[in-house]
Amino acid sequence: MADLCRGHHLVLLWVLATLVTISSAMPPPNPIKCNKTDCQLSNSYGIWGDRQTCHAPKIVYPTTEEELRQELANANKNNLKVKVVTRFSHTIPKLACPSTGNAAVFISTEKYDSNINVDVEKRTATADGGVGLRKFIDTIEKAGLSLVAAPYWEGVTVAGVISTGAHGSSWWGKGGAVHDHVTGLSLIVPANEANGYAKIIKLIPQDPLFNAAKVSLGLLGIISK
After folding, report:
1. Which of 91, 108, 125 is the C-terminal boundary of a domain?
2. In a domain, 171, yes or no
3. The pairing of beta strand 54-56 with beta strand 32-34
4. How many angstroms from the chain centroid is the CA of residue 53?
5. Parallel, antiparallel or unpaired: strands 222-223 and 198-203
6. Most CB within 10 Å of its CB: which of 4, 46, 65, 162?
7. Residue 20 lies in a domain
8. What does the alpha-carbon distance between residue 120 and residue 90 come to, in Å, rounded to a whole number?
9. Which is nearest to 152 in space by CA: 143, 144, 161?
C-alpha cells in the first residue's frame, strides 16, 4: 500500500509540474485595450509599485519605416505627446507615460516587423524595430549565425532591447548587454516644418549621439532599425 501511495504522489507531482509548465509558457495578454474614447496601456509582464497605466485617446499601427515617420510627424505637427508601444509592452515607469489629457497618441510597432536582412560575410543583421526577439533569433539562425547576447524573455522587440539596455549573461567579447554589440541604428526624430515634422537619422559608433540613442528609453526618438 505504501508503494502504491508513493506512486500516486509521483503521478500527482508530475501532473502539477506539467500544469505549471504549460501555464508559464502562455504569452501575456495584449497590453492595449481601447474603447470609443480611450486606449489604456498596462504592463503585460506583471505589476510593480513603480509602474502605472498609461492612457491616450488613439493608437496607430504603422507597418513601414516611412509610415512610422509619418505618424511621428503628425504627432509633432499637432503637438501630441507620443508613447511607442510593442506587442508585449512590460516596462512602463511613470516617466514613460504621455500626458493624461487628449493631447497624446500611442504608436505601436506590433505590425512593423517584416524586414530582417542578414549579412553572413560581415556577421551582422539589420531588422525593423518592431521585430520580436524570437523571430530575430530564428532568422539569423537559419543563416548559420547566432546572437552574442540576448535577454531571457523572447517577447521583447529589437528596438526595445536596445533602448532599455536589456542584457543576457554572456562574458564573450563585449559582454552580455545587447546594445554594446550594435554597430548602427536608425532613429526617427521630430523635425521642423521644412523637414516634414519628422526625419530619419542614421547613426554609427563614430557619431556623438550614438551611445545616447542606444539606451535612451525612447526619449530621444523612435529606433526604427
Report:
1. 108
2. yes
3. unpaired
4. 17
5. unpaired
6. 162
7. no
8. 32
9. 161
Torsion angle defined by CA atoms of residues 198, 202, 157 and 221, in that order, rounded to the nearest 10 degrees? -40
List Cα–Cα distances, 48 to 42, 132, 219, in angstroms. Answer: 11, 23, 22
User: Does residue 120 sit in the same domain as residue 219?
Assistant: yes
pLDDT at position 94 is 63
Residue where a domain stops, chosen among 108, 143, 171: 108
Q: What pLDDT digit, counting tens, does each position of 61-84 carry? A: 999 999 999 999 999 999 999 988
Determine the average pLDDT of the residues in 93-104.
Answer: 72
Q: How far is Cα of residue 160 from the mean position of the Cα atoms in its chain?
A: 3
Q: How many structural domains compose the chain?
A: 2
How does pLDDT run across 167-186, given as a tens digit for each residue? 877 777 777 788 888 899 99
136 and 168 share one domain: yes
Residue 2 counted as domain residue: no
> What percent of the chain stands above pLDDT 70?
79
Please count the CA atoms within 13 angstroms of the CA of 210 that sit on its side-chain side: 14
Buried b or exposed e, range 36-50, using 16+ CB within 10 angstroms: eeebebbbbbeeeee
**Is 11 inside any structural domain?**
no
CA separation for the pair 127, 125 (Å, rounded): 7
